[in-house]
């Protein structure tokens, strides 16, 4: 008996492509909302521990790659209610992720951005937990994003307070 493995491989490749496109869309939306965010960031009063603006691009590139891989690994665990729930929460946190830059830089609503980032962190913690249940590797791949987002929350709060 000969089995056709091309169809599952092509579905897996399509799922990986969709996962990558989702994080690219989130980053593009954020980037389009404030094309001058590096200059805006430099003009803000910042705490002494704030990183330089050039750090954000490389960090987010790595984080988005890890996020895409994690979502793909969860998708590969197979169709189930738990997989759908995990990927739905993942999609929600991606939308929240994309919304932060327009709030913080585009509109200058640093307090609203802080509240939004707080909600993002709650959703992200739940996403990490659900991903971990589906795939330990997928859950672990989101931990750097969770840590960076926690740092970003503290930085957002400090910048908000210093520029209020």
UniProtKB/TrEMBL annotation:
Gene Ontology CC terms: membrane
UniProt membrane topology term: Multi-pass membrane protein
Keywords annotated in UniProt: Membrane, Transmembrane, Transmembrane helix
Keyword Transmembrane helix: yes
GO biological process: tetrapyrrole metabolic process
Keyword Membrane: yes
Similarity comment: Belongs to the TspO/BZRP family.
Annotated protein name in UniProt: Tryptophan-rich sensory protein
């Amino acid at each position: 008996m000969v089995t056709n493995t091309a169809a599952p491989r092509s579905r897996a490749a399509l799922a990986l492509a969709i996962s990558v496109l989702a994080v690219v869309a989130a980053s593009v939306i954020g980037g389009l909302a404030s094309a001058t965010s590096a200059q805006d960031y430099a003009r803000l009063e910042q705490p002494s521990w704030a990183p330089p603006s050039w750090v954000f691009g490389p960090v987010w590139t790595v984080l988005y790659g890890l996020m895409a891989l994690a979502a793909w690994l969860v998708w590969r665990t197979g169709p189930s209610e738990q997989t759908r729930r995990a990927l739905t929460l993942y999609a929600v946190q991606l939308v929240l992720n994309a919304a932060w830059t327009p709030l913080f830089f585009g509109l200058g609503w640093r307090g609203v951005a802080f509240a939004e980032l707080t909600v993002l962190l709650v959703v992200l913690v739940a996403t990490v937990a659900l991903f971990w249940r589906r795939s330990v590797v997928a859950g672990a791949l989101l931990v750097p994003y969770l840590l960076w987002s926690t740092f970003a929350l503290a930085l957002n709060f400090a910048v908000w307070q210093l520029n209020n």
